[in-house]
């Protein structure tokens, strides 16, 4: 059975780009959920999404990705989270890891970059 | 306070945005862009049919970044982002994709600009303006505007930056 993945990004185009990569990796499209901001992400997780992986943007309306990470971890959820963001400064990487993110990928990225991160985080993702 | 006079160019800013634009479009959209030059102007005017605008603030200063594209160049780049044909790109895709490009280019540039700073620059969410001959009211910071021109497949788009140092 395919892994369940939650993509959190306010850009529909970016979500489509990531979905394209995931499906080429063999993740079934039915196993991919989407959220447009941190509020939707927190709700998707707390509603029992049972995700195997969350890809989290940083700059989004309503609730930033970093605040969503803190909330998700504060609720006791341990789903692996990959921050996927334009925020490339070391300070932000440290902040995200301290908040509970498991790994970090800076935009722009290519397909190989994302595949490598995902395979590191969730071996046998597909 | 450091200001950029009309007609003068801040090389640090040009390099940050030139490299960011080249890197983002090359990596995410497999599109090679040709940097054609930079100039400082007093006007802050869109040059294309679709523009995305994003704010940038930090301890060294603040400003506004604007990307402006002819509609066919916007469609071409977004189609390459998505791995589809230009005909398959919807108006929503085009607007969203150009906004995300502004986010990625400004984010990449601000990382370069933040080197050595205690606090990284922060970005606003992008806004997208669509329509032939559209304009933007007002002039951010009342500062000279740095206009960088890039070529893609024999057409041009611009990245503009109106930035004021503290």
Overview of this protein structure:
Chain A has 126 residues and is an alpha/beta fold. Chain A has one domain: Response regulator (Rossmann fold, 3-Layer(aba) Sandwich). Helices cover 43% and strands 17% of the residues of chain A. Chain A is built from five helices and five strands, in the order βαβαβαβαβα. Chain A starts with a strand and ends in a 5-residue tail after the last helix. Chain B is an alpha+beta fold. Chain B has a single domain (11-165), classed as CheC-like (Chemotaxis protein chec), CATH 3.40.1550.10. In chain B, helix 1 (11-29) crosses helix 3 and helix 2 crosses helix 3. Chain B is globular and about 45 Å long. The model of chain B has no long low-confidence stretch (mean pLDDT 90). Chain A binds chain B through residues 10-14, 16-17, 20, 59-61, 85-89, 91-92, 106-110, and chain B through 23-24, 27-28, 78, 81-83, 92-93, 96-97, 99-100, 103-104, 106-108, 110-111, 114, 118-120, 123, 125.
Label the structural class of chain A: alpha/beta
| Number of DSSP E strands of chain B | 7
Q: What is CATH's topology name of chain B?
A: Chemotaxis protein chec
**Poorly predicted residue ranges of chain A:** none
Uncertain parts of chain B: none
User: What's the gyration radius of chain B in Å?
Assistant: 15 Å
CATH level 1 name of chain A: Alpha Beta
Number of helices of chain B: 3
**Total number of domains of chain A:** 1
Please, what is the CATH homologous superfamily of chain A?
A: Response regulator
- Main interface: chain pair and counts: A-B, 23 and 27 residues
* CATH fold name of chain A: Rossmann fold
Shape of chain B, please?
globular
* β-sheet strand percentage of chain A: 15-25%
Rounded average pLDDT of chain A: 95
What would CATH call the homologous superfamily of chain B?
A: CheC-like
SSE string of chain A, helix = H, strand = E?
Answer: EHEHEHEHEH
Side-by-side strand order of the widest sheet of chain A: 2-1-3-4-5
Kindly provide the name of the CATH class of chain B.
Alpha Beta
